[in-house]
Amino acid sequence: MSSPTSEGSAPQTAGIVERLVRDDVDRKRFLKMAGGAGAASFGAFVLAACGSSTKTASTAAAPAAATSTASASATGDVAILNYALTLEYLEREFYAKVVASGLFKGKVGSLIKEFGSQEATHVEALKGAVSKMGGTPAANPNGKFPITSATQVAGLAYTVENLGASAYLGQAGNIQSPEVLATALAIHSVEARHASTLGTLVKKSLTPDGAFAKPADMSMVLAAIKPFLA
Amino acid sequence: MSTHISTDAPQTGLANPELANVEVSGLTRSSFILRGAMAAGAVYGLGAVTPFVSQALAETGGGDVEILNFALTLEYLESDFYNVKGKEIGLKGQAKSYASMFGEQEADHVEAITTTIKSLGGKPVAKPTFVIPASSQSSFLALASVLENTGVSAYNGAAPSIQSKQVLAAAGSIVQIEARHAAAINLLLSKSPTPSGGFDVPLTKAQVLTKVKPLIKA
């Protein structure tokens, strides 16, 4: 995260991103929050995504739990867009590396390629949206991703897409502009489609949260992506 | 319905032969609005539907409760589709397990939206009676794809008009599930899981109404 924060991005946004990524307290705060809001499957997902051994309580979640994690860190639409842009940069790079690895062929290979190119269109759309709002698009962070086998990569992709979907969901209520919200929603459901598709590939749940998708707080997401930042 | 959602969604694909003989009966305020809009759309085309619906919504108050009741009608349809029609048909294999899982989730959506409407002081619309023209696993799945993908577009189109943060969060939480269903059904049909590419296309309420028009029994 040091390169995007040192240049190119709105200083305040970058500061927040940097601080959150580094601040373990935020992560713990999230885990505590997730304990209250997450159903069992979500708790398991959070643990997987955060790579933590901390136990979260698995309380059954009401649909209304979707409202509880509005991030205190989000400061305006530009900040939210730059946060989404950072996630999309990483997804784009991840898929590009997966495609380059040649681990997937045939039908699955073309799906992976397709998803990668869709993440690339998300990057462009978000950059455009930031600029349109008078902001400076965040710089592209360099990612690092373990790419060892098709099974491992598909599993990671499933985790990443679920994280992405919950990240967008976590911000929906914080977005002020209806146009920005419409853009975020159009992307959000595509991330969900990716996650579901990957679920069929790795034989994991298409709907890991059940009938109501759970949102993820910004600090949790940033903690979860930390291992993938070079 | 909304001035800030893109209304230039492609008009192609609005006609869905799968829906041709689906019928809905049951007189509720929502279905009354639906039918009125259908009639206007049939006679004057899509352009005529929007003002009709706006007027109808203006007359009935509109707002989050109206959006939720519209969503509730779609969820009733999806729930009956899987839980009633799906059982009738005798689905096999993956289609059967999807219908069972998705049907349960659509029923949960019905319940959650009903509760939300009540908590806002509104009155949930009654469930219409649906007559769904699927008679085989393949026609069932084709219709499932249309319903789920339309559901995604309906929520995405309506969400920016939602006033309450809580209602928006609930809608977001549901639309993500519809998208997951849509992708899985499409894959089962060897269709693209992302039929609109990188960005799901929002539909205005009027456009959704046009899509489900054949479902409405006059």
Could you explain the architecture of this structure?
The complex is a heterodimer of chains A (230) and B (218). Chain A is an all-alpha fold and 230 residues long. Chain A contains 9 helices and no strands. Chain A starts with a helix and ends in a 5-residue tail after the last helix. Chain A has helices at residues 2-6, 11-22, 24-37, 40-50, 76-101, 106-132, 150-172, 178-202, 218-225. Residues 1-74 of chain A have low confidence and may be disordered. Helix content of chain B is 64%, strand content 3%. Chain B has 7 helices and 2 strands. Chain B has 218 residues and is mostly helical. A two-stranded antiparallel sheet of chain B has the order 1-2. Chain B has a single domain (2-215), classed as Ferritin, core subunit, four-helix bundle (Ferritin, Up-down Bundle), CATH 1.20.1260. At the A-B interface, helix 6, helix 7 and helix 8 of A face helix 4, helix 5 and helix 6 of B.
Biggest beta sheet summary of chain A: none
Provide the CATH architecture of chain B: Up-down Bundle
Number of strands of chain A: 0
Please give the radius of gyration of chain B in angstroms.
Answer: 16 Å
Identify the most extensive interface between protein chains: A-B, 45 and 47 residues
Write the layout of secondary structure elements.
The complex is a heterodimer of chains A (230) and B (218).
Chain A: H1 2-6, H2 11-22, H3 24-37, H4 40-50, H5 76-101, H6 106-132, H7 150-172, H8 178-202, H9 218-225
Chain B: E1 23-25, H1 29-44, H2 46-60, H3 63-89, H4 93-119, E2 129-131, H5 137-158, H6 165-188, H7 205-212
Antiparallel strand pairs in B: 1-2
Helix pairs in contact in B: 1-2, 2-7, 3-4, 3-5, 4-6, 5-6
